[in-house]
Specification:
Blueprint: H1 9-12, E1 21-22, H2 30-38, H3 46-63, E2 65-66, H4 76-89, E3 122-124, H5 128-138, H6 146-158, E4 161-163, E5 165-166, E6 173-174, E7 177-182, H7 191-202, H8 223-231, H9 246-259, E8 265-268, H10 272-286, E9 298-301, E10 304-306, E11 309-310, H11 321-328, H12 330-339, E12 347-349, H13 351-373, H14 390-411, H15 415-436, H16 444-457, H17 463-473, H18 494-526, E13 543-547, H19 554-565, E14 567-568, E15 573-574, H20 578-583, H21 586-589, H22 596-611, H23 624-630, H24 632-639, E16 646-650, H25 660-665, E17 672-676
Parallel strand pairs: 8-9, 10-12, 13-16
Antiparallel strand pairs: 1-2, 3-4, 5-7, 6-7, 10-11, 13-17, 14-15
Helix pairs in contact: 2-3, 5-6, 5-10, 6-10, 7-9, 8-9, 11-12, 12-13, 13-17, 14-15, 14-16, 14-18, 15-16, 15-24, 16-17, 19-22
């Protein structure tokens, strides 16, 4: 308080805030504005004060304009440097520098560094014209993640003069001041360009000492040499320098032009504010007249955890690459890495996934071998010439859909998504197809296509397993890794996909109804419940009636029409304004349904958040009853485990139905289920 700090009242009372700068959002008195906004009443509100501090300092520096002092009217960024220079020149201040926080080396993060102020060379990142070229390139740079793109934009906004030299350690000497080394983050920002010709410079020796295989000596790699190789300028050897053979120059120039620019740079997210942004800057400097040579894409990832914990030797969970391969094998390790997650969030290497993948890969290899040989216990091949089934078309369509999904996953560097479709999606499709073909048998051609595509889609993740399937199971020549990537055999039929999803949903709905019936029966039994007539307990249901509606009642159709007209494609949701439209609709009011229209609207609005506009369709793009009737074999097979052996379908087309109210409660895409027992 005032007394504890030994402050005199006349020093601070009355306290008048003197405006010195203005920002668009915070006005002339930013601190007071933020204190009022956040309701700060005491210096003890540390978190709120920190938030206010950060907002004021950021807005003031980047958007503020001076309103007082000798530099009034200038942006704060300019005025700050001029004020500093003036105060030092007038003898009112000295330059004092200190680290922003604790400085520790990467090798020993628990040890504090001693920082000394010494002579430095600086790179003037942030120079207006230079930064503008980088900013223009950022507009078309593929970053695979909006958060990464924003991080680059932020780095471009604040990265300025950068100390690029140091006095000791490993590194390259400054060409113009050899007492200094180039510090590691500033060095090697365009080393990818060197890679394009490294094999020609090194020859048979990493150090390029064999002149027979590496005709260019290190001392010949002058500025003129690199200007020709990287920029295409006429080659002019330095005075007294032995010229590089024309054939070698042509070969290196051709290699560089073939391989550059960089298609993708992969690195850690912690390098975005420095090394990676510097790489963009230095590409823009070296190839300033040829933006086509700038990197095309940059993918950034986070750190790796093991079983959701930070990997460290002290915890005993540090796993090296060789150790992982010895414990799980290469493919299982790669499987778990693909499953670990993508993007800038920390990836989680789950050892349980690695363990399970060994069993899964082995089991699938044996199933494929047995299925194609006609000896699988859970599947048999359909006799040649036998009629095709509805599930054949669905299976072929689903494989086509999955191929596109996997391709998109790999192309966008979402390996977990790719694995989800390439492995789990393909497995689920095969399992459903197999369950539905217990009576008819599997189509041999489709089954073989599935085995082949499964192997090819998994090549980027489990190459050794894929090669075994390719050669030992399929008997194919060559290597799977060199085979053509699968392409859909036909355009994706959205109607078939929707019908398949509906069929599997029906199976789940009936199984859930059986589970709920069992719970109620068990609960009643636990309470000593008995039938009302005192007779024997009702037998367990073994049949299901499925009531299918081809269209909604008119009042529901009208609600859906209004929901569709208020659907916002950008937000993927229905506007809240629809509620007033429904309440004021005379046609809906005339149906006298009370609160039901609003309840139905609320339910469908929630559905639309997940299913989009298609969730608000007035009818299904297929014949629900026909799909069910064509796949009774599938339903009987999948529901046998819960005791359902018969499925009976009813629609409004039937002259009579067992329960008219059940039919009335059904809706397109949402059939009603009624269980019963029959001998």
């Amino acid at each position: 308080g005032q007394a504890g700090a030994e402050l005199r009242a006349e020093w601070i009372d009355p306290f008048e805030v003197v405006p010195v700068l203005q920002t668009p959002e915070l006005g002339e008195v930013a601190a007071k504005f933020m204190c009022d906004k956040l309701g700060i009443a005491s210096q003890k509100e540390v978190e709120k004060l920190k938030e206010a501090h950060d907002v004021c300092y950021t807005a003031g520096f980047y958007k503020g304009v001076m309103t007082a002092g000798p530099f009034a009217g200038l942006p704060v960024q300019e005025a700050k440097l001029k004020t500093k220079a003036k105060m030092v020149a007038d003898g009112e201040a000295i330059t004092y520098l200190e680290p922003e926080g604790l400085v520790t080396p990467r090798s020993t993060p628990d040890v504090e560094c001693v920082v000394a102020l010494v002579d430095q060379w600086y790179l003037k990142y942030g120079e207006e014209e230079w930064a503008a070229r980088v900013g223009e390139h950022l507009g078309g740079l593929e970053c695979y993640n909006p958060a990464v793109h924003k991080a680059f934009r932020d780095a471009l906004g604040w990265l300025g003069d950068w100390a690029c030299s140091r006095s000791f350690g490993l590194g390259t000497r400054m060409p113009w001041d050899t007492q200094f080394l180039i510090e590691s983050l500033s060095d090697s920002t365009i080393y990818m360009a060197y890679y394009t010709v490294a094999h020609l410079l090194q020859g048979s020796s990493m150090f390029g000492t064999d002149r027979a295989t590496a005709p260019v000596a290190p001392e010949q790699c002058s500025e003129g040499f690199w200007d020709h190789v990287l920029l295409g300028k006429p080659y002019e050897p330095a005075a007294g320098e032995a010229p590089v053979p024309a054939a070698s120059l042509a070969s290196m120039r051709r290699e560089f032009e073939f391989w550059y620019p960089v298609d993708m740079r992969v690195s850690g997210k912690d390098l975005i504010p420095n090394h990676l942004t510097m790489s963009l800057y230095n590409h823009a400097a070296v190839w300033q007249d040829d933006p086509a040579k700038y990197p095309r894409s940059i993918f950034c990832n986070g750190h790796v955890q093991v079983d959701a914990e930070k990997m460290s030797k002290s915890k005993g969970n540090f796993i090296g690459l060789l150790q992982a391969c010895e414990k799980w094998c290469a493919d299982a390790t790669r499987f778990a890495c693909a499953d670990a997650g993508d993007g800038i969030l920390n990836a989680n290497f789950d050892t349980t996934i690695a363990d399970r993948s060994i069993l899964s890969l082995t089991a699938e290899l044996e199933w494929a071998r047995a299925a194609l040989a006609g000896s699988a216990k859970d599947a048999s091949m359909r006799p040649a010439g036998a009629a095709a089934t509805w599930l054949d078309a669905w299976f072929a369509n689903e494989m086509n859909r999955l191929v596109l999904a996997v391709t998109e996953g790999f192309a966008s560097m979402r390996f977990r998504d790719a694995l989800k479709h390439a492995w789990y999606g393909m497995q689920e499709a095969r399992d459903r197809y197999r369950s539905g073909c217990v009576e008819s048998g599997l189509d041999a051609e489709l089954t073989r296509r599935w085995v082949e595509w499964q192997a090819l889609l998994m090549v980027p993740i489990t190459p050794h397993w894929s090669e075994e399937v390719w050669s030992a199971v399929l008997g194919r020549e060559g290597c799977a890794v060199r085979a053509a990537w699968p392409t859909p055999t036909a355009p994706i039929d959205a109607g078939v996909s929707a019908a398949g999803a509906y069929l599997f949903k029906v199976s789940s709905v009936i199984a859930t109804a059986m589970a709920n019936h069992e719970k109620k029966a068990a609960k009643a039994k636990g309470k000593g419940g008995k039938p009302a007539d005192g007779g024997a307990a009702a037998p367990k249901p073994n049949q299901a009636r499925l009531y299918v509606a081809r269209k909604f009642p008119r009042w529901k159709e009208r609600v859906l029409e209004l929901l569709r007209s208020h659907f916002d494609a950008d937000s993927g949701a229905v506007s809240e304004a629809v509620r007033a439209a429904i309440s004021g609709c005379d046609e809906i009011k005339a149906c006298n349904k009370g609160k039901q229209p609003m309840q139905f609207a609320a339910m469908m609005m929630e559905e639309a958040k997940h299913g989009g506009l298609s969730a608000l369709a007035l009818s299904m793009p297929f014949d629900e009853a026909l799909v069910v009737e064509q796949n009774l074999s599938y339903l009987r097979t999948t529901l046998a485990s819960v005791g359902v052996v018969g499925i009976h379908v009813y629609t409004e087309a039937h002259d009579s139905v067992p329960d008219a109210e059940m039919l009335a409660s059904a809706a397109p895409g949402a059939p009603s289920v009624q269980l019963f027992h029959a001998e």
